[in-house]
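Batch manifest line 320
LIGAND: biotin
JOB: complex structure
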Amino acid sequence: MDGTLLLKLLEEAEGGFVSGEALSRRLGVSRTAVWKQIRKLEEEGYAIEAVPRLGYRLAGKPRRLSPLALEAALRTARFGRQARFYECVGSTQDILHEWAREGAPEGALVIAERQTSGRGRMGRSWVSPAGKGVWMSLLLRPELPLARAPQLPLLASVAIARGIKTATGLAVSVKWPNDLMLDGRKVCGVLLESSAENERLVYVVTGIGISANLDPEDFPEELKEKATSLKTASGRETDRIGLIAAVLEAFEELYDLYREKGFAPVRLMWEALAESLHRPVELRTPAGIVRGTARGLDDSGGLLVEREDGTIAPVYSILL
Ligand code: BTN
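JOB STATUS: finished
ARTIFACT:
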């Protein structure tokens, strides 16, 4: 996209000046063409300082998410390379389902600044205020037997935890099946909705909701004790584009590893990040409430729960 490379070059200078001549050389265009691209970036909301003899310097970024900013930050081969941005939608899930049925490729991404009917697991709604979070849906086409579907939420939560760690330094833990937690409160939720035919997955719409820069008052009363944001936990604003790029990179990397090596590495990573192993748990599953002590994951992605009578059996987050 026009301006992407220029933005990359300015970002690489980390707030320092890059001369017009160097830019024109690296971009392979005239100084006037560089200046035109600079104007375009300014129109997109970037603050660019121009000083004679020194050149140009990136002095500020827009707060809004944009295709240009994402493209400049992305380091993936497929995930997020085709992305649709919206100011306000009902749910990014619905938009991606439609796009998937029209043939969207694996890695296709739908992002919104705000959702009016954001949805969570088990029929709950998802708080998605404007400009403060990462509300996005990512398309997977895993071509797997349906029986392996329970592995995917676990893979997603490990990948997102790793992405958050890279982008913010915060060590989030995972809570079965796919919540991400900070200081004992939920900071991110994942919702997988799949379409299957003949016992095989056709596509999976992976909904990711990260409460990045929400303030405590953004949560409704009933969630105030249970939810937090990256901002509340770290005391600073998170750059949402950097966060999205890091999550997509971690996701693509882990997904490729999973395709190559199967579930075993993901299982180990999930167990290492899990906050409630070997503690009493009460789990809400599609099949009802299960109480016991979580002991780990089995090969298919079920959580092994030891019941009061000492028997151990897996529970699943998805009804197959
Ligand atoms: C949960 O923990 O219950 C899952 C929450 C998933 C929220 C995300 S936000 C982006 C995507 N669109 C939705 O409507 N939901 C998911």
